C-alpha cells in the first residue's frame, strides 16, 4: 500500500522496486488486501511522451490490458466513455497499470495531463464455430461475466446483405446461441457496454460467422 497519489491505494512491484503497478483507483482508502496470483496481461500498451503505442489494440472479453509508463513525463490512462471504468491516476516513469475488460466494446481513453495522447481498446465479440450450416447452433459471446450492477450489454446483428440492427438490448447475460434465420451468407455481431445513465462504450468492429 502507498499514499503516493494522495490516497491509500494498493500497488505491486518487483523485489528491486521496479515495474510499479497500481491495482486500485478509488476515493476510499484501500487497506489489508488479500493476495492471489494475477495472470499476465494479455495486451501491453506503452505510454511515452505524446503517444500510446500501439494507439489501438484488439483483445477478447476478459483480457487484461497493461499500460507501461516509459516517460520521461508522468502520464495517465483514463477512460473516456463517460462510465468511469478505469483510471490509472498519475503514474511516473517505470510504473504500470492494468485493467481487465469484461465485455465487448470500443473503449477510448486518454492521458488527462496531455490531451494529444489518446488511444482505444477494441474488445471483439467471440463467435464459435466460425462457420457452419443453416441448422448449426452458434455460440455468440460478448462478455466473460454477467453484467455488473447498473450495467447492461447491447448486441447488434447484421444479416447477409443487410445493415446492423439491435438483436439483444439491455442484456445481463454474456452469451447466447444463434441459428441462421436469413439463409446463407455472412452474419456479423458486435456489442457494447452501457450503464444506467446512458453512457456507453462505442461498438467495435464486428465479428462474422459464415453460414453455408
Give me the secondary-structure topology.
Layout (H helix, E strand, L loop, with lengths): L10 E2 L7 E3 L20 E6 L2 E3 L2 E4 L4 E8 L6 E2 L15 E6 L4 E7 L2 E10 L2 E3 L2 E2 L5 E4 L9 E8 L5 E8 L3 E4 L6 E11 L11 E5 L1
Parallel strand pairs: 2-8, 3-6, 5-10, 12-18
Antiparallel strand pairs: 1-2, 3-4, 6-8, 7-9, 9-10, 11-13, 13-16, 14-15, 14-17, 17-18
Textual characterization of the structure:
This protein is mostly beta strands and 212 residues long. It is built from no helices and 18 strands. A six-stranded mixed beta sheet has the order 1-2-8-6-3-4, with no helix packed on it. Residues 35-40 have low confidence and may be disordered.
Percentage of residues in helical conformation: under 10%
Spatial strand order of the main sheet: 1-2-8-6-3-4
How many distinct helices?
Answer: 0
Number of strands: 18
CATH class of the largest domain: Mainly Beta
For the sheet with most strands, the description reads: 6 strands, mixed
CATH fold-level name of the largest domain: Immunoglobulin-like
User: Gyration radius, to the nearest Å?
Assistant: 19 Å
Q: Give the CA-CA distance, first to last residue.
A: 56 Å
Helix/sheet category: mainly beta
**CATH homologous superfamily heading of the largest domain:** Cupredoxins -  blue copper proteins
Shape: elongated
The low-confidence runs, each spanning 5 or more residues with pLDDT under 50, are 35-40
The percentage of residues in β strands lies in over 45%
CATH architecture of the largest domain: Sandwich
Order of SSEs, N→C? EEEEEEEEEEEEEEEEEE
Amino acid at each position: 500500500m502507498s499514499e503516493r497519489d494522495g490516497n491509500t491505494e494498493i500497488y505491486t512491484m518487483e523485489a528491486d522496486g521496479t515495474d510499479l503497478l497500481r491495482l486500485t483507483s478509488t476515493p476510499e482508502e484501500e487497506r489489508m488486501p488479500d493476495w492471489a496470483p494475477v495472470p499476465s496481461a494479455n495486451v501491453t500498451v506503452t505510454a511515452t511522451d505524446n503517444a500510446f503505442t500501439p494507439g489501438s489494440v484488439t483483445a477478447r472479453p476478459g483480457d487484461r490490458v497493461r499500460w507501461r509508463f516509459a516517460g520521461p513525463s508522468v502520464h495517465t490512462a483514463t477512460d473516456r466513455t463517460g462510465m468511469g471504468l478505469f483510471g490509472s491516476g498519475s503514474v511516473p516513469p517505470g510504473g504500470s497499470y492494468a485493467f481487465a475488460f469484461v465485455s465487448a466494446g470500443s473503449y477510448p481513453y486518454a492521458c488527462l495531463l496531455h490531451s494529444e495522447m489518446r488511444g482505444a481498446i477494441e474488445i471483439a465479440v467471440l463467435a464459435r464455430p466460425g462457420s457452419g450450416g443453416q441448422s448449426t447452433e452458434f455460440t455468440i459471446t460478448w462478455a466473460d461475466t454477467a453484467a455488473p450492477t447498473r450495467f447492461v450489454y447491447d448486441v447488434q446483428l447484421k444479416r447477409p446483405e443487410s445493415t446492423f440492427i439491435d438483436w439483444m438490448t439491455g442484456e445481463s447475460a454474456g452469451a447466447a446461441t444463434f441459428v441462421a434465420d436469413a439463409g446463407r451468407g455472412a452474419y456479423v455481431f458486435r456489442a457494447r457496454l452501457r450503464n444506467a445513465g446512458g453512457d456507453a462504450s462505442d461498438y467495435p468492429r464486428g465479428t462474422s460467422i459464415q453460414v453455408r
